[in-house]
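Memo subject: From amino acid sequence to discrete backbone structure tokens
Action wanted: Derive the backbone structure tokens from the amino acid sequence.
How to read it: Take the token row as a discrete description of the fold.
Attached in line: The record itself begins immediately under this heading.
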Amino acid sequence: KQFKVDGLDYIEVREGMGILNGSSGKWLMKPSAFSAYGAAYPIREIGDDQYRFWVPSKLKEGSWMLIDSSGTQLNDALFDFPQRQPYLGLMIVKSDGKYGLIGTNGDMFLPFDYEAIYFNGGYYCYLKSGLWGIFRAKGKKAKLGETYQIEPRFTSIINAISYQDTLRIGVLINDSITYLSTELEPLFPLTKIDDLIKNPFD
């Protein structure tokens, strides 16, 4: 028995179902590990031979764990809502009604302390007590200690845009607005929306 999901081969052998990288012929999850969980959802950003997997936990119904191909758990937390695929090496996760941000290797970048988190064109926006904060990785893949972050202080967030080949995101505090650079530095002082010129970047 064999079928494909997300470009990977799910193959049933004598020991049970496993997940195979068809291009390399290597097991991404051996049948012994797969059968221990009964289901596995691969995380694809890591690389052909370094997949991670979301698997259901037997400790709490409806919860998930993050493991590597050998079946080793990468984080002690149990997740109610795991994001299937990462952006910039990060995934939005939920536990006991609160959201956090986890790396594909199991590192926690934002704790389970927020009412909402969403990805906004290269930035992660997170909500606490009615105010928004912003988080961004310095490179193409997040590493601990190599991030930019502003704690929640904004009343609203505007969708990120690309202007002159540079990414930026709009933030508001009440009726004043500015845009932040990729390093989360303001591009101009907070300005009343009514006073803002048509193009604030010129």
